[in-house]
Every structure is written in C-alpha cells, then in structure tokens.
Amino acid sequence: MKPFLHPPLYLLLAASVLAQGYDLQVKARIDLGQRVEQFRAVPMAIGSEVPHAVVAMYSADAEIDPNLGMFFFPEHTLKLAVFDVGGKVLWKKDLGKGVIPGVWFSPVAAFDLDQDGMDEIWIVNTTDPAHPLDHRDFVLEKRDAKTGEVKGQWKWPEPYPDQEMSRLFRHFIMGGYVRGEPVLITANGTKNYETIKCWNRDMSERWVYKRTPETPGSQGSHMSPIVDLNHDGVDELLWGERCIELDRGKLLFCADEQTWNGQSDIIEPILDRTTGKWFFFTCRESSNRRPPRVVLFDDKGQRVWSALEEGHIDTGWAARLGEHGRHVALGIKIGEKKRSAEGEHRVDVEEYTFDALTGEKIDLGFSVYTTIPVDLNGDGIHELVKGYFEGDGTLLDRRGTVIGNVGGASAIASKFTGDPGEQVLSYAKDGIVRIWVDRNAADNDAARARYAHPFYQLNQKQTGNGYNLFNLGGL
After folding, report:
1. Which of 301, 398, 426, 464 would bridge with 406, disulfide CB 3.0–4.6 Å?
2. pLDDT exceeding 90 applies to what percent of the chain?
3. pTM of the entire structure?
4. What is the DSSP string of 250-267?
C-alpha cells in the first residue's frame, strides 16, 4: 500500500492531537423525565436572546421504521421540546397519538425562513390524529421556537398512492438558499415515487420535482445534503445521485444515470480544500445489485473512483482522519438489518476505508463501525464517537485511542454551544441528555474556517432529518 499523502496546507497541524490532552466534561445535563428509546435533536437559535438552543424529538418507543418487517405499532407518543445549552428546558409538547414516532414519519427541522433572526421549528403533523397513517391529512407545521405554539399549517404534498409503507412514509424537511434568499424544501418517498417541493418565504409554491419508476437514474437516499456544488450562489439538493438546483428545481445532472437506478444509503459531499472543489461520495444498498457499490463523483457527476463489486453498503461517512486532516471515506457492508421494539441490530458487518480523493484502500487499524466524526479539540482533525446504531458512546482519537465515553447514543456532533471545538449531545435510555465539551479545546484557523462555511451552517441543522448526522464530516 502506498503511503498516505498529505496536502501541504495541513503541515502545520500535525502535532496538535499529540500535544494537547483532552478534558472531556459535561457542560449541561437535561432530565426529560421519562424513558427514551429514540431521540433526535437539532441546533437552533432563538434570536439574540438564546443564540444556542436545541430542539429535540423523543419517545419511549424505539425508532419505528415504515419498512416491511420493521414497522410496529407505537405504545407511546412523540414529544417535542426545546432547551438551551445550559440545560434549561424552555418548553415541552406532546404531539399525541396521531404522529408516529420515527424519523421517517416525523422529521424535525430548524430554519429561519421568514428571516426574522429566529429559527422556526418545522415538523410533519396531522389534522386527523385518529388515523395516523392517512397521509391525506398530513400537514407541514410551523411552531414558534420560544413557546412551541403552532404558527401555521400547510397541506403536506400528496405522495403517490398505492405504495408499500416503506416507500410511502419517508419524509424530509430542510432549508437552503438561492442567492441569499431562504427557501424551504420538503420531500417524501425515496424509492420509485418521489415528490420534492420548494416553498418560498411566504409559503407559496416555488417548484415541484417528481420522480416515477419510469424516470431513469438513481432513487433518493437516506441523506439529503444541501450544498452549492458549483459555487454559483444557488444551493443544490443532492437527492441520491441527483443534483437539483433550488432556484427552479432543475436537474443539473444525475450521476450514473444510465447504469444505476437503485437507492444509495449515503450521499456525502467532500470538499478538497487545496482546490476548493466539491466531490460527493456514495454508498449503495442492495435494491439494485449492479456494481460498483461505493463511488466518488466530482462536481459534475463524473466518476473519480469506485470500489466493491457486491453487497449492501448500509452506511458510511467521510472524515478528516488522515495525517494532517486528509479525508478518509468509510463504507459499511452488512448482511442483514433488523429493527423492532427492542431497537436496531446489524449482522455480518464489514468495514472498508479509503483515501477519499484517490480511492486507495486504507487500514485504520481499529473498528470505526457505529462512529460519527467530531472535532472535539478544534484542531481541524476529527475524533470519533461511537454514537450511532449499536454504539456504546466511546470516544476515540483518529488513531483509535480511547478518550472517554459520553454515556449513550449521540444526536448532535458539531459546534453548537459557542464553546471551543465541536461538542457532542448524548442521550441515555433513562431520559438523561448530556452536552459534552473538551475543556482543553482551542480552535485553529482550519477549524474556524470549517465552522464558518455556509455548508456547515446549513447542514448542521439536518440532524433531525434522515440519517444526516454524518453530513459535516466531508467539510
């Protein structure tokens, strides 16, 4: 194997991990007052009054997935709450039995669409709670971040009828910008039939994009990154291997359009800081068994490299784990995935890691399954928290050395408290939420540039939506 090359830009960062010890501490502890089996959270700002807050969705039911063999009837309701990063709970709301607990049924987003300086909270609700699967009564709902009060409801875009549950109940909410103007994006469906709608500031329809089984090219993904891929001031949505610009809903390209019509679990933008050029990495599931299974595309949808000829590549990420912060890409192959009231479990897991820009295979020397990238100490190089799927909360440095443990799964891994470095928000089944910081963290220039990037600011708020916890690792 060739040596792992380092871009000159990072030469001055080399010794920072070794020179700086970690001091992992709990900044805030929040007691939700109930058992928690599923939890997701989004950083938000409530104007200048509470610039660092979190909106959370949680339930005593484990994650409920619409997929066949994974759906089960909930026994508990879904809650919505907002707390500040000091641990003060500002409000809680019970969404009632009409809202099914599960990220695909019930995403949550924080986005300042009306540009009043305060994020609004956006969820999917229903006007007919007696019939929680009747999509005809679903609504896009806006809530006030200060109080939780409902500020408006708009009919959720009609999905195509006569679909399997696993295809029908897949909901996304996210924001983006068109030359500085905010727009809201809602989407439903990720397989065969898909509807994406763009909303203006006044909640009028800007455009609608639809995909049917007759549409050539890829299906949707479990991730939905928003990125200005071509640096023209108009954000694009990466919807699977499709690149859709947000101004008019025009398809700029569909990568591998003639050779791939399946679903990709992971769509991860990766920025080459030496050139300023975007790439994106994809991990493909088994709905279509054609090779390759992992691919890196450039900003025009052309293949840069590909690997693996077979298998369901269920998850993955990009992270700055290489020497001096060079990107590594991960793909996780699984044999089977099971989800029930007892939670989620994967079997026959195999890990594959690559130099993200060349595709060269890399042996990290330790397991990174269940991890999420996070730059705890602010040196521009990622640590990893085992906070996803069956993860046990262990924190590792980029060489696999154990730093500590956050005591549960992770719902946020980004800079959301105003403290140096990035932070981790963890939650335990006893309903205790903790915000973890490295008290020895000190942000360098590379880290500060990363936090200030428009991609970071926007996609940091997608953690209540799909599987976007990994979205920032490619920056």
Report:
1. 426
2. 83
3. 0.93
4. -EEEETTTTT--S-EEEE
